């Protein structure tokens, strides 16, 4: 049975970038949560959120998590708010938590320059509060934890991921 890897973590932690790199390196299919959402609902996450509202968006996002898939899946950052679905994923797949510090996330967020559908749960009023809440939740569902560092190139992070998931040391 092929191994499936799910990259999880805060938005801007590098899930899509590293997920694509990992899939290419392993020679498996890559699926990003944004692409899955569009394929499932026929529109972008941000468009759906603006049109349908937070509650309907959250339900649509939750349902899209349980796709049967083999390869590398870049999970949406807010998937962590769906404990039943996260438990199923945790029991059946290997979850790689990309654990990036807040300053790294903010720097990447500011540099990106386009809007993502970030839904703040009730009682959360700032991006930093959202980060702190999610970080505690990510700790409950992972197989491998990769600490993201500010000065490391994605290719170096990829080597660390491969060293965690494969029984050999990856080198150039």
What does this structure look like?
The chain has 172 residues and is α/β, with parallel strands linked by helices. It has a single domain (5-158), classed as P-loop containing nucleotide triphosphate hydrolases (Rossmann fold, 3-Layer(aba) Sandwich), CATH 3.40.50.300. The protein has eight helices and five strands; from the N terminus they run E-H-E-H-H-H-E-H-E-H-H-E-H. Strands 2-3-1-4-5 form a five-stranded parallel beta sheet, sandwiched between helices. Helix 1 (15-26) packs across helix 8 (154-165) and helix 3 crosses helix 4. The longest helix has 12 residues, at 15-26. The radius of gyration is 16 Å and the shape is globular. Residues 168-172 have low confidence and may be disordered.
- CATH fourth-tier homologous superfamily: P-loop containing nucleotide triphosphate hydrolases
Class inferred from helices and paired strands: alpha/beta
Shape: globular
Low-pLDDT residue intervals, each spanning 5 or more residues: 168-172
Helix-strand pattern = EHEHHHEHEHHEH
| Main CATH class | Alpha Beta
Tally of structural domains:
1
How many strands, which pairing sense, and closed or not: the largest β-sheet? Answer: 5 strands, parallel
Q: Radius of gyration from the CA trace?
A: 16 Å
In percent, how helical is the residue content?
Answer: 40-55%
CATH topology name, in short, is Rossmann fold
Percent strand equals 5-15%
In whole angstroms, how far apart are the ends?
A: 28 Å
Major β-sheet strand ordering: 2-3-1-4-5
């Amino acid at each position: 049975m092929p191994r499936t890897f799910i990259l999880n973590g805060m938005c801007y932690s590098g899930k899509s970038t590293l997920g694509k790199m990992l899939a290419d390196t392993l020679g498996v299919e890559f699926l990003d949560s944004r692409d899955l959402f569009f394929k499932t609902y026929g529109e972008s996450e941000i468009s759906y959120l603006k049109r349908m509202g937070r509650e309907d968006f959250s339900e649509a996002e939750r349902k899209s998590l349980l796709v049967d898939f083999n390869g590398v899946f870049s999970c949406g950052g807010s998937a962590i708010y769906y404990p039943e679905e996260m438990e199923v994923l945790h029991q059946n797949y290997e979850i790689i938590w990309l654990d990036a510090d807040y300053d790294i996330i903010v720097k990447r967020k500011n540099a990106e320059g386009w809007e993502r559908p970030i839904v703040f749960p009730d009682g959360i009023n700032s991006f930093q509060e959202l980060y702190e809440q999610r970080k505690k939740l990510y700790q409950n569902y992972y197989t491998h934890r990769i600490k993201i560092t500010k000065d490391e190139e994605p290719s170096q992070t990829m080597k660390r991921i491969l060293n965690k998931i494969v029984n050999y040391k990856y080198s150039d």
